[in-house]
Every structure is written in structure tokens, then in C-alpha cells.
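Check these lines:
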Amino acid sequence: MNITRENIDALNAVVKVEIAKEDYSDKIEKILVDYRKTANIPGFRKGHVPMGMVKKQYGKAVLVDEVNKLLQEGLNKYLTEEKLDVLGQPLPKVQDEINWDAESFSFEFELGLAPEFNVDLKSKKAITHYNIVAGDKMIDDQIINIQKQYGTLIPQTAIEKDSEITGTFKNEEKEIENTVTLTLDKLKGAANAKKFIGAKVGDVITLKTKGLYSDDHDLMHALKVQHEDAHGLEIEVTFTVTEINKRELADLDQELFSKLFADGSVTSVSELKEKIKEDAEKQFVQQGDQKLLNDVTEYLVANTKFDLPAAFLQKWMQTAGEQQLSEDQAKDEYEKSEKSLRYQLIEGKLITDNKIQVTLEDIQGHAKNMIKAQMAQFGQMNPSEKELDDIAARVLSNQEEARKISEQIVSQRLLDIYKEKANVKVKELTYEDFVKEVYGDK
């Protein structure tokens, strides 16, 4: 077998594979001898069929099969030995009908080659890494929520501003009938809240869904309708009051602290605030890191310049999926996926340059830490190593889960590199201010 390559340009090449008779003849002869031993042809005893008849009946199919096997094996070996970084898969060039009666064969494949480029993490403008903290308002609101959760319900005869109201929303035409408990602060506008004030058990309040809640998700849950049905819904509903309560807040005393933290780690309001702040900020770290990861990714894709073998990739995409695409469809698909492909190449370059490797031990350790954290949420604070090993083994037996964990480890290591080597500035702000700055929520 002879394999040669012609580089068309830096991103495209053609590989020619030539297969001679001596590459396949011995293998085919052996296969046909085995066929002869088992061939069941009328008029001949098994094992005594003339070799000429076996070759006539099976020779062409065996030849085609073996040549194709040699072709794939040879091409794959060549790409590995030459250390060619190809994009997509080699594409066979269209050729005239193959003459399988010939003794030698020649095939050509188009290759799309990965570009060579360098990655510069030092942006001219610093990329912000948000250090998100829990502000006093968030902590105070969380304490109020805890007091409400552990507070006492006191029945009321009439609805007041701070009442908890249980009742049933109805609309016969839309077949809506759902019982909920609501508070007036969730409603939009003073006019809607005013309709409830003074109402008693058994009273029926008529409401319009448009403008009832600020968020369609709240309306969706209140009426128990699908999201698409809640969006822009403009109907009239009735609300029949069935129960009115006022929630008396739980005292911030040791009894409450012990319910929240059975280990006795909290004995005062100041310690409770510290605990709330600590727990909240642990969650915020992930949000700040994810924002940094997203922003560095956007920067790298926009500022790492290199060409791609676009024509080859579009041609490859036509046949790469389950369904064949037209030229226009493949072009659209390429345009949609080009940004993702560019980042994959950049990420691969960073992984290579920084010698990032993920071992089985890394994956097992990461899985065990995840499992330990999940168990802690359910009060299992000290699982044994055997328990963790057994659960991790079950999780990692799923190849998809193992792949996800490996990707998480790589992302974390890239994030560490970005923090160390990129032009990053740290900005501390409260969660509320982070949401306003990043997402524009007012």
C-alpha cells in the first residue's frame, strides 16, 4: 500500500491511497479457503466445492470488503503517524465506477486541516471577574423568610394587607380551577390588592388576568396553566376565599437556631447572619466564575484570528448527519456552528499549551466530592469512603456522566488559567447590583 499527500494550501490537502494485489491477495485467499470448508452448494459435499466456483460466487464480494477494510485501516494509520490534525472526516473524491476486475486500486480523499494559530489571553481591556457578596438587604430578607417559614398562622376574619389568603381561581370557559395560597405583595398594582382588602371567607372576587401579576410565571402557577397559555392571557377569573391567616413571625431565639442548625453552630442573630452570608456567597462564586468563563470565551473567539477550510467543512456537513443536507442547508449549518467550532479549536490549543490532562483519579475524586456535597444537603455529613466509592462507581459506569465530569474538570482548570494569565480585574458588588449590571434587571 502506498499513501501520498498533496497539500493544496495550509487548510486543504488530498491524500491518495494506492492498494496493490499483494496487499490483499493472501487475505482473500485465506477467506475463500474458509468459505470453501463451509459452503453449502447443491450437488457438492460440504468442503468439496471446487475453488473456482467459490471464487466465482464469493470472490468479488470478499475483494470489495477487504479492499475497503485495508483502505480505512491504512488511512487511519497514516493520519495518526503523520500527526495530521484534521477537521471533520476525510471525504472520498468522486471517481468513475471502480473496476473491481483490476488488480490494483487507487482512491483519493479530501482533508480539511486544522489551522495553526496562537492564543493571546492578555486583552487590552480588562475582563471583569465579579466577586458577588450578600448585602444587608438580602440577609435581612432571608431572615424574614425564615421567620415566616417557622412562624405561626393566626386565623383572621377579614383580609388585611399582610394576610396569607387561600382560595380558588376559576374560569369555566378555559376550564381553570386551581386552589392556591397567595400574599398581596405578589400582585401587580394597588388596584388589584385593594379588591382583596376586607374580604371574608366565602367572598368571591372578580379579577382580570391582564396585569394581575408582574411575572407570567406567577400567573402560570396561580392558574395552573401552561406557560404559553399564561403569556398574554386576557380573561376574567373569580377567586373564592376559603381561608384567611396572618403569619406571626417566629422569634429569633435559640429554639429557632436549633431547628435551623442542629449542630449548635448558631447561637445568636449575628451568627445566623454570618451563616446566611457564607452560604449565599458560596453559591455566588459559581455565578461569578461562570460569567468570567463566558466573557473570556467571547473575547477569545472574537480576537483569536485564523481561517477555516469552510468549503470543505460545508461539503462534509452535507453527509455527516443522519440526513443528507443540500448545499444551502450545509452552508446555514456551518454558519450556525462556526463560532462553536472556533472555540473548540481555541480550547484544544489552550489544553495542549498548558498540558491539561484529566486522569481517572481526577474524575473519581470530582465525582466523590459532588456526591459528598449532595449527601450533606440531606443531613448525611460523614459518609464512609466505601459508600462514596460505591456510589461514584455507579455514576461513572455511565459514560455520558463520566464525560460530563471530565468536561467540568477541564473547564475549572481553564478558568484557573484565565484567572492567572488573562487581563482580569476583580469587581465586588452585591447580588442585586450584579443582576442589574449583567442582566439589566431594574
The chain has a mean pLDDT of 92. The CA atoms of residues 134 and 426 lie 16 Å apart. Residues 269-303 form the longest helix (35 residues). The radius of gyration is 34 Å.
